[in-house]
């Protein structure tokens, strides 16, 4: 109470997501002011007067924390915080907060939209209609097929409702699930959807061995972090002669 408008500076650290930044600005109390990062200047050279950092997709490293002499809080405008060095924050007594579930429904809808685009071959269908050859391209019916969801947080729960609404069977794993349960999911699922957080346990979770377990003609959706899949293993699988994936 009694603080002036200049008392708290909130720095939006990523050069993007500006609509979200403006929405946040509109909800700030009068004693807070938001500043947008200058992408032409290193972030560590812009944090000295900030009391709150909002990383978005920016990486918050120890050197940035050391330069932020007035820092009181790091507030992530989303669910993931893998771009923040949490251990370094803890060592400097800087609290980190996030917004779990904030965009879970939107992410789940985007993931399901991508699945429909792949299985119904929307792009190929449009091309076929433009060439007046409808019926040449035939998609896949999802009803009756199995979706395996790895990670049953807010996004996984939303995906479950959508899949069940499409009359799909759903199986899932959580962080507490065993290796045997993961292997069962990979072998049984027509669609494997990743919605788990990125951490030491999930980094590279889907590698060569796991990709080889998947059903022939199955689909892999990753609307979580890219590093959950071994990138080179995925490339080699897609380019290999024994690729089980349809999309």
From TrEMBL:
Molecular function per GO: glyoxylate reductase (NADPH) activity; hydroxypyruvate reductase [NAD(P)H] activity; NAD binding
GO cellular component: cytosol
Keywords: Oxidoreductase
Matches recorded under InterPro entries: D-isomer_2-hydroxyacid_DH (IPR050223), D-isomer_DH_CS (IPR029753), D-isomer_DH_NAD-bd (IPR006140), NAD(P)-bd_dom_sf (IPR036291)
Pfam families per UniProt: 2-Hacid_dh_C
Annotated ranges, domain D-isomer specific 2-hydroxyacid dehydrogenase NAD-binding: 114-240
PANTHER family in the record: 2-HYDROXYACID DEHYDROGENASE-RELATED, GLYOXYLATE REDUCTASE 1
Protein family: Belongs to the D-isomer specific 2-hydroxyacid dehydrogenase family.
Listed name of the protein: D-isomer specific 2-hydroxyacid dehydrogenase NAD-binding domain-containing protein
Organism of provenance: Tetraselmis chuii
């Amino acid at each position: 109470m009694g603080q002036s408008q200049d008392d708290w500076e909130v720095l939006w650290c990523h050069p993007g997501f500006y609509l979200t930044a403006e929405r946040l600005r509109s909800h700030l109390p009068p004693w807070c002011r938001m500043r947008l990062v200058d992408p032409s200047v290193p972030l560590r050279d812009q944090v000295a007067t900030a009391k709150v950092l909002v990383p978005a997709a920016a990486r918050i490293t120890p050197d940035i924390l050391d330069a932020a002499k007035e820092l009181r809080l790091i507030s992530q405008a989303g669910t993931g915080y893998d771009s923040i060095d949490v251990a370094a924050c803890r060592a400097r007594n800087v609290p980190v907060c996030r917004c779990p579930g904030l965009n879970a429904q939107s992410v789940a809808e985007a993931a399901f939209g991508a699945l429909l685009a792949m299985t119904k071959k929307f792009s190929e269908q449009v091309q076929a209609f433009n060439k007046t050859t409808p019926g040449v391209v035939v998609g896949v019916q999802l009803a009756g097929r199995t979706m395996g969801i790895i990670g049953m947080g807010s996004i996984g729960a939303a995906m479950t409702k959508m899949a069940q609404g499409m009359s799909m069977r759903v199986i899932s794993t959580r962080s507490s699930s065993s290796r045997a349960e993961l292997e069962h999911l990979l072998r049984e699922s027509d669609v494997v959807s990743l919605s788990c957080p990125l951490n030491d346990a999930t980094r590279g979770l889907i590698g060569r061995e796991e990709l080889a377990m998947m059903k022939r003609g199955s689909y892999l959706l990753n609307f979580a972090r890219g590093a959950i899949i071994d990138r080179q293993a995925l490339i080699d699988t897609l380019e290999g002669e024994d690729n089980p994936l349809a999309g």
